[in-house]
């Protein structure tokens, strides 16, 4: 499973399917083996925790769960709208991602 994904940590993404459809958020983590990404503040789940040093009370905590990357689109930096991603050789000679809608490079 050594292939490139169109989403990276730190990207601003738009959710195009599921309960959080239409929302945007920042990618906190990409789980390559499961083709999933954890997006800040989206797909919140309740996790039951036992008392521990970090959380002495225990109880139920809310945390983000992974969203399949097929349900995410990178937001175009110039227009602020979701776009598809392409790859091309940049000015530095390396492969860079760019927005298909505007042609702008994605950092």
Structure characterization notes:
The chain is an all-beta fold. The chain has a domain at 12-75: SH3 type barrels (Roll). Helix content is 0%, strand content 46%. Strands 6-3-2-1-7-8 form a 6-stranded antiparallel β-sheet, with no helix packed on it. A 3-stranded antiparallel β-sheet has the order 9-10-11, with no helix packed on it. A hairpin with a 6-residue loop joins β7 (72-75) and β8 (82-83). The mean pLDDT is 93.
The biggest sheet amounts to: 6 strands, antiparallel
Give the CATH architecture of the domain at 12-75: Roll
What would you call the shape? elongated
How would you state the average pLDDT, rounded?
93
Q: Biggest sheet, strands in spatial order? A: 6-3-2-1-7-8
Q: Give the helix/strand class.
A: mainly beta
Terminal residue distance: 24 Å
* Total helical segments: 0
Beta strand count: 11
Order of helices and strands: EEEEEEEEEEE
| Amount of helix | under 10%
Strand content: over 45%
Stated plainly, the CATH topology of the domain at 12-75 is called: SH3 type barrels
Gyration radius over CA: 17 Å
CATH class bucket of the domain at 12-75: Mainly Beta
Unreliable spans are: none
Fold topology:
Layout: E1 12-15, E2 24-31, E3 36-39, E4 44-49, E5 59-64, E6 66-68, E7 72-75, E8 82-83, E9 85-89, E10 95-99, E11 105-106
